[in-house]
Amino acid sequence: MRQMAAGAKNICMITLDPPEFRHLTDHPEKLPILAQWFIEEWAPWYGPGGAGDAQQDLLDCDSRDRLPICLIALNADEELLGAIALRDTSVGSELGYGPWLAGLLVTPPHRGKGVGTALVAALEREAARLGFDAIYTSTDTAEGIMRRRGWQPVGAATSLRGEVEVFRRALDGRAM
């Protein structure tokens, strides 16, 4: 907690530690809960009868230097706050673009607190580190984050949940 003087009054501000971002491959113990969250969030794909396999998709993120990769956000107590992936394909890859920011997920108690935005920024830095000059995403839930971070709409695609907007983010070395 920080105190800031404002004239004759003292104002108390609680500041939360920013999340720490790590590669999922370094924290395999987080995989089972994350797989369950993926199944719950994207039930048409990962749920019963869906074509996806959340556990295998996350196991495939076993590198820091080749796709797919998955970053996780942890608080100071190592509590899992959310995750994000960079993949070769995702909803919208039929448009011929890539690579793809995918699987952006923040746990409900931590939504609206900047964790999603911080995960996107961390993945942008990671994609730039890997040498990509642009990345893409499709979303029906995070359009606001993408627009605020300078992502540009480039089209639309259809997911199992309906139409999604496709965005592009240039990674030109500017501060991200």
Give a written overview of the molecule.
The chain is α+β, with helices and mostly antiparallel strands. It has one domain (18-170): Gcn5-related N-acetyltransferase (GNAT) (Aminopeptidase, 3-Layer(aba) Sandwich), CATH 3.40.630.30. Helices cover 24% and strands 33% of the residues. It is built from five helices and nine strands; from the N terminus they run E-E-E-H-H-H-E-E-E-H-E-H-E-E. It has helices spanning 31-41, 43-46, 54-59, 115-129, 143-148, and strands at residues 2-6, 9-13, 20-23, 69-74, 80-87, 100-106, 134-139, 152-159, 162-170. It has a seven-stranded mixed sheet with strand order 3-4-5-6-7-9-8, sandwiched between helices. Strands 1-2 form a two-stranded antiparallel ribbon. The longest helix has 15 residues, at 115-129. 31% of the residues are buried.
CATH architecture: 3-Layer(aba) Sandwich
Oligomer: single chain
Q: What percentage of residues falls in helices of 4 or more residues?
A: 10-25%
Shape descriptor? globular
Specify the CATH class. Answer: Alpha Beta
Kindly report how far apart the N and C termini lie: 27 Å
Look at the helices and sheets and give the structural class. alpha+beta
Spatial strand arrangement across the major sheet: 3-4-5-6-7-9-8
Q: What can be said about the biggest beta sheet?
A: 7 strands, mixed
| CATH superfamily (homologous) name | Gcn5-related N-acetyltransferase (GNAT)
Which consecutive residue ranges, at least 5 long each, have pLDDT under 50? 1-15
- The amount of beta strand, in percent, is 25-35%
Please give the count of helices: 5
Mean pLDDT: 87
Order of helices and strands: EEEHHHEEEHEHEE
How large is the radius of gyration? Answer: 17 Å
Tally of DSSP β-strands: 9
CATH topology: Aminopeptidase
Q: What's the number of structural domains? A: 1
